[in-house]
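Reviewers asked in the last cycle whether our approach scales beyond single polypeptides. To address this, we selected a multi-component target totalling 652 residues and predicted its structure end to end. The input consisted of the following lines:
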Amino acid sequence: MVKMKDVAELAGVSSAAVSRYLNGGYISADKAERIKQAIELTGYVRSSQARALRTGSTKLIGVIVPKINSESVSRITAGIGQVLGRRGYQMLLANTDNAPDRELEYLDLFQNHPVDGIVLVATMITDEHRRAIESCRVPIVLIGQHVEGAACVYHDDYEAAFELGRALAGRVDGKIAYIGVTEEDRAAGYDRRRGFEAGLRAAGNPLDAALIRLGSFTLDSGYGAARELLSAAPDVSFIACATDTMAAGALRAIDEVRGMGEGIHRVSGFGDNAFLSALTGGIPTVHYGYLTSGVEATNMLLDALDGVEGEGGLRTLKLGHQLMNV
Amino acid sequence: MVKMKDVAELAGVSSAAVSRYLNGGYISADKAERIKQAIELTGYVRSSQARALRTGSTKLIGVIVPKINSESVSRITAGIGQVLGRRGYQMLLANTDNAPDRELEYLDLFQNHPVDGIVLVATMITDEHRRAIESCRVPIVLIGQHVEGAACVYHDDYEAAFELGRALAGRVDGKIAYIGVTEEDRAAGYDRRRGFEAGLRAAGNPLDAALIRLGSFTLDSGYGAARELLSAAPDVSFIACATDTMAAGALRAIDEVRGMGEGIHRVSGFGDNAFLSALTGGIPTVHYGYLTSGVEATNMLLDALDGVEGEGGLRTLKLGHQLMNV
DNA sequence: TATTATGGTGAAAGCGATTTCAACGACAGG
DNA sequence: CCTGTCGTTGAAATCGCTTTCACCATAATA
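The resulting structure, written as structure tokens, was:
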């Protein structure tokens, strides 16, 4: 492996000069030229490990996600990856498989390991999380949850759910049911349900608490909850779900119970899943700019790292949403 | 930041002893105990950067994928991540956004940067790719394509497509069309089409070359190709697609042209997408163990790295498949 | 002419681990 | 008593880069 010293010798300069050449310090034109040629000749590439040890920066960003194979998450990571690549960083991906304590584990791992910053695609934020985030030695940006005192990029789930509820209340005749997710997930659990309830109430069609079920983000859980709902309350005519994935499950359940194609106008979701939209022609749902949230969060993080002072810095950013098919 | 020397001083030993303690070298029981306590007391964690510089190993694996937000890829990465986590490695993810030259770029980047090995979720393998893989300084395993002389984990797309074609030929009455992808993607493009054609032929119902279209892996491209097919050849009664995603697009096209719900028994795909299956009740498709391929490839790579000699080493591994809903 | 900038330069000091190496005490065998 | 072996040990040499620092020309200013 050719090292900096070799290049320096070949070019007849000191390695300090080579380093300066590489990092844009004082260097005369002719030496720069000689160094450039020596580098080309030898095919030298600098060891990022030595560099990392010396500078303390690895140009690595840790990204913690709850589940890699989910459309929303993969769109977010696509956005993160875009920015990272453009700005000369790389992504260290950690998948927690929906286990919130593995988030903590990785938060810990990443600090003592080689990352310059962290993007956490958050689900549940416990006190332990808050503490871990607080005491994190590298900058960290959250996506998907709004946490006081932490930098975050999120969507206003309450407001979106409110609008969806209000819009649906008018269009649906008959009873509306709701399949949510755990309220420990503040955004997708608590905010969406509360917002939806408030929206329905505002439109004069409050949600019957007996018609609320809990799913677990999966298609099957949506299916199961819907089947149960349909047999417990056969007069339900619409099932709103906290995610498009669960909505797909509910759709299948309705189709099974009431005949194929019936479900399509009887469920709503969150997330504007492309598959779902194509296959159903579009159920009522909320479109979030997932890719954008990845982009924004990463830019925010990298700005902080690269010391772009500007107006920005680590802060909180609420992104817009869009009601679809209502 | 507490470093090894601090721990050593506190424990009254040399840092060499601490290092040996950490790495399992000669150390007496009482010193080991003292070191252990000193570490606990100080909360010492060793700098992976210094370690990487000294040992030349970073415990990082580069993973190159064509597109992060696709179900197959995210299942593969889920598998990769599982094994990596279990075996003490971390994943450096690179997303090429379907640009094969960015694969080369990353292959290059990863070699001179800090990875111990590479998993390449491959699409098109050009000669340049072959050369890059050949000359790669770290071990590399391919997923999804069979390349002579390289370690790879793949599925037999030809055989699977053949079986699907043969099975469908009997069940479908009327003309069958095919929407494929670029043949530069040997597995998903060339092999699937060839196998499918051969399967139909074997069942005495050969594919009309005029009914073949080319998509680009996206839902929209499947939709577009199907629309075009349906108007160019209105007597087509079945559209086989090279991916489930394109099949979803074709489904929408058929529904639009011939009425809702019509498409469901008139398309087939590859990949056994969960959404598609739930929403349609299941179109004919091929189930691949994507997660398994990630797991197997990663184990293979890590075995090679960790010097597990065994029967294994870098080799090629063909995984099975399963016809669904035929 | 005597100063002070100013653009360039290389020697050398780390960054924080791992690993070689020589050495040491103790103890067994000859 | 001498020698060899065994289990341990710490000093010191790297790993490959960045960065300070002192220093040197040369040009600009007083």
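Residues 77 and 112 of chain A are 23 Å apart (CA to CA). We regard this as preliminary and will revisit it once experimental data from Aim 1 are available.
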